[in-house]
Amino acid sequence: MTYRVGIDIGGTFTDFALLKDDAVLLEKSLSTPADRSLAVMEGLEKLARREGLELGDFLARVEAVIHGTTIADNTLIEMNGAVTGLLTTEGFRDEIELRRGFKEDIWDVRLEPPPAIAPRRRRLTVPERVLHDGRVYRELDEEAARKAIRRLAKQGVESVAISLVFSFVNPVHEERLAELVAEEMPGAEISVSYQVLPRAPEFERTSTTVVNAYVAPRVTSYLERLTRRLADAGYRRELLVMQSSGGVMTRDYLRGSPIRILASGPAGGVVGGAQIGVAKSAPDLLCVDMGGTSYDVSVVIDGSAPAEPGWNWHHRYLVAVPMVNVETLGAGGGSICYTKSGVLHVGPESAGADPGPVCYGHGGERPTVTDAILVLGFLSEDSEFAGGSFSLTRDGVDAAFDKYIAGPMGCSIEEAAFDSWRVVNANMSQAVRRTTAGKGIDPRSLTMLAYGGNGPVFAAIQAQELGIDRVWVPKASPTFSALGALAAQPSIDEERSYIVPAAQAQVQRLRELWQELDERAEGYFVAGGFARDDMTARYELNLRYPGQNWSLTVEVAEVKGARDLSFVSEATRDVMIDRFHDAHEAEYGHRREGEEPEITGVRLATSAGIPKPAFAAGFTAERREAVAAKTRSANLGAGFEETKIFRGPDLEPGHVVASPAIIEETFTTIVVYPGWQAVLDDAGDYLLSRTGEQAE
Description:
With 696 residues, the protein is α/β, with parallel strands linked by helices. Helix 9 (264-279) packs across helix 14, helix 10 (369-375) crosses helix 12 and helix 11 (397-409) packs across helix 12 (413-438).
């Protein structure tokens, strides 16, 4: 018996999905903010005990540990990264602070810019210059560079970002500058732009490199600590880490650019969502993930959620690595409810795992969303919580609502809890509207996929507000992002700059660049235990019309197995020009047929096939009404009334649950609001639909 383990670390819980042949087992453990690797090891021990094995014996049978984490995101949210300095070309000191004229809220005249990761006193320049064609116009002044580095050292800089003009064409000065930093500041983290993002434009490359430098020490130390703990416990394979692009890769590959794991936790859920949507004949999905700390929204169209490589503003900073588009809101079960100037607010501050909501009984004093839904009867002190790992308590909950909300607002405890439920629900629905409107998508055309520990609690009522008629809740929804990590392919997506009019591109140069990327990818895949025959390489070109800032990526060829660049020929260029015109018209609604586009770079997306969890579908089981286990008083939006309570583990395919009802699964709660019903399909997944609609 062999295993594969998917892990997703959240702010409150750390989730696990164990793939055991075709079966999937779920597990959770409370996150440990002081050292998140401890929660990982605790969860692995739980899985080992469930399999009747010692941890060492269990890990010896694990073929892959695939890990998604929000540690880079948390670093940016909490602004507790490394003391960061920037070395750049003379004359470009302030480019990073000038930004792109982008403002998150154009109507807020008081909106301040984000805190400078590298303030001006820690942004220093060095005399040097490389031209756009790679020729060295001015040699690097090493003495001046050493003086600048020593100034950074005196300021206590822990991590240095290096971004020089046109280094993506010729990195000779960046390479030498990195050597000088290593000599003058031994032990400092070094982020070099030609490794992090070897392409134009200048601001995007510099911003990405600075953010990489800021998060690198925390990410690197965490992954090294986890790798060491796994090895000490008996794990003998490479740790695979989820990337923001939706693929996974080895720890060694991410060593120079840990920025690639930003938003890697939510990306796992989107990858799994795309695959389950295709299986359920619902390829157009609105994926909503509500955990203990955050609420993540993403859109899957036609079974795909492609990584966007350029304009990714994440936590108010431009990060231009390939990234699945996920909008994150500070709204989760641990989000704190409070009043300010007579107005009720929920989040973004969270009680997290320590101390957690008041009802956890771990010392929390301020009311949270979880406390609110306990008061409303969605949850109960009598029910198992988090797989039975602990029980909820009402002790202190009423007093917390009275002190912080009911008292100041002059309402009852129940009204305070209900209004908190309404506010957090409105916040999440508004986040969905922003995400879909920004893409020109009508949410009514989508099927909602709800997951996370709290996603199914709010799913149907949100869908109703958004005009969505169908909601899928996977049986694995409480740890769906961890399961999605198991569904992700090992992948490397990189590019090299080559700026030239398309008709003048040198075939030999294209081959050289693609071969360089291919050999680099193959080295990491082989080190990770993947054979060349397992690899699929997708060769692409970035093109744009003259005068445009942004490029479109056009696929040239896809090759499985052995490297084969025979497709690169003079004819390739003409075909690519035609494809670019078509792609531009599809993206922007027009084409400039008479203009010759220019190539800005070559791109190679490489992946390998691995065993994945199977997502099934179908409604062949006989429909029959489910029998409730008990009832309790709950307010599902229309006042308190006796509500049927069903045990999820007792339900089988074909069972129908009519509203109003609450389904208590092992790690989550599914609320069937008035006007809705739930049906279990052949795979045991829940389809929530408006009453009277036929489930297909």
